[in-house]
Amino acid sequence: MTSRPAFSDPDALARLPYFQEVPAAVLARVQQQARLLSVRRDEIIAHRGEPCLGMHIVVQGRVKLCYEAASGLERIMRIVSPGDSFGEALMCLGREYIASAEALCDSQLVYIPKDIILAQMAESAPLAQRLVASLSRQLYMMMGDMGAYTVRNGHQRLIGYLLRESGSHQDIPVRLTVPKGVIASRLNLTPQHFSRILHDLIQRRLIQVQGREFTILDLQGLLDYRDQQAL
After folding, report:
1. Under-70 pLDDT residues of the chain
2. Each residue of 31-47: pLDDT tens digit?
């Protein structure tokens, strides 16, 4: 992992969604302390149990937040995409990372230390609102995941994922941005169960899969099959 001052361009930080409408003076102070991290695929950005002393914003690439059980099995809690962030809640609480953060591909992130971000939140209502909105969105997604894992079966979870990734569009190939094993873990499915469901959907001619690309062949049929699983 390499680290350097985040931006030589004074307007670059303002272009990140997190800092839109934040006053220039606040941006300048944050930029002085922010660091740009370049990480390779499979590189660990933060280890579970380490103190969380700041927040990360993904600029390019993707990061998985994962928990490894004593048995060695890995459970992916969240996939962080460009524009999204992680670490805010733990940073504010002064707690350790409860999951490790690992790059799914070569990625760039902005790291902002706790002291500077908390101090500038007191100076900028838009910045404080961005942090609250980010935490609220993460909580909303977590509650949605908990509901999916408790009341939806594997077919429903995978179909829901495919619908989200495709925008519910038929006959348009969609490239998966992460490996299938990562998707399986994110959906709380074993790789074997994931493969069986995928094969079932292919056999029913509801979807087509070629490598990392999938295409919904029969959108209404896929929706109907998802609803049948709830009966």
Report:
1. 3-11, 69-72, 147-149, 231
2. 888 998 999 999 999 99
What is the three-class DSSP state of 55?
A: strand
Distance CA 135, CA 114 (A): 15
Tell me if the domain spanning 2-150 has CATH number 2.60.120.10: yes
Distance in angstroms (rounded) separating the CA atoms of residues 227 and 156: 8
Question: How far is the C-alpha of 1 from the C-alpha of 61, rounded, in Å?
Answer: 14
CB atoms within 10 A of CB 145: 16
Q: Where in the chain is the domain with CATH 1.10.10.10?
A: 152-229
CATH classification (class only), 152-229: mainly alpha
Q: Are 50 and 96 in contact (CB under 8 A)?
A: yes
pLDDT tens profile 63-74: 999 987 666 677
Question: Which residue type sits at 191?
Answer: P
Which residue bears the tokens 């074993």? 190
